[in-house]
Write a structure and sequence with these properties.
Elements: H1 2-36, E1 109-116, E2 119-125, E3 131-134, E4 139-140, E5 145-150, E6 154-162, E7 168-176
Antiparallel strand pairs: 1-2, 2-3, 4-5, 5-6, 6-7
Length: 186
């Protein structure tokens, strides 16, 4: 029985040691909390000594009247215009090119002409073999060419060119239906 009592008394010594530590830590925390919550008394404030400020000396104020400036734009350039103009004022805007304007008129081939009442339609083929229907007024060729007339076996295109002196010129180019060779007849 003594073994059991030793065992019990040993456990109590371990438990009582832990209990003692826990109680000590709790008391210290409680004392710290109570000491920290103590009201502080405000220190008496003393009034700051008043300094006497010298009165500012007023100097004699003289008003100077400035001349008013008026800007005269006559004969001067607009300050908001750019120095360099990228586009010429007289140049018309370029119209998107049609596929027929990518080739020279001499590269195009007239395949046939359709005669309708009051209207003529020419069938033109480009070097790649793609066909197009063309009427009077259609733009054609690299030199700003325009179809001006469609006859029964040819199309007349008017092109705008610039000669050696820099003067604008117009020339008429005829596109005809190629003649069949004698051996190729149907």
């Amino acid at each position: 029985m003594e073994l059991n009592s030793l065992k019990i008394s040993g456990q109590w010594s371990v438990v009582s040691g832990q209990w003692l530590r826990l109680t000590t830590v709790t008391c210290l925390l409680l004392l710290t909390f109570i000491a920290g919550c103590k009201k502080e008394e405000a220190a008496p404030t003393q009034a700051a000594p008043v300094k006497q400020v010298a009165k500012p000396v007023q100097a004699a104020v003289t008003t100077v009247k400035k001349e008013e400036y008026a800007y005269d734009a006559a004969g001067k350039r607009d300050p908001f215009k750019p120095f360099i103009e990228l586009e010429k004022k007289g140049a018309p805007a370029k119209v998107p090119l049609s596929p027929l304007q990518a080739y020279d008129v001499n590269e195009l081939r007239l395949v046939g002409i359709i005669l309708l009442p009051g209207k003529r339609v020419a069938m033109i083929e480009d070097p790649a073999g793609k066909g197009y229907n063309v009427t009077v007024g259609v733009l054609i060729g690299k030199n700003d060419g325009k179809v001006v007339e469609i006859l029964k076996d040819e199309v007349i295109v008017e092109e705008k060119l610039v000669d050696e002196t820099g003067q604008p010129k117009t020339r008429k180019v005829s596109i005809t239906i190629p003649k069949e060779k004698e051996g190729e007849g149907k």
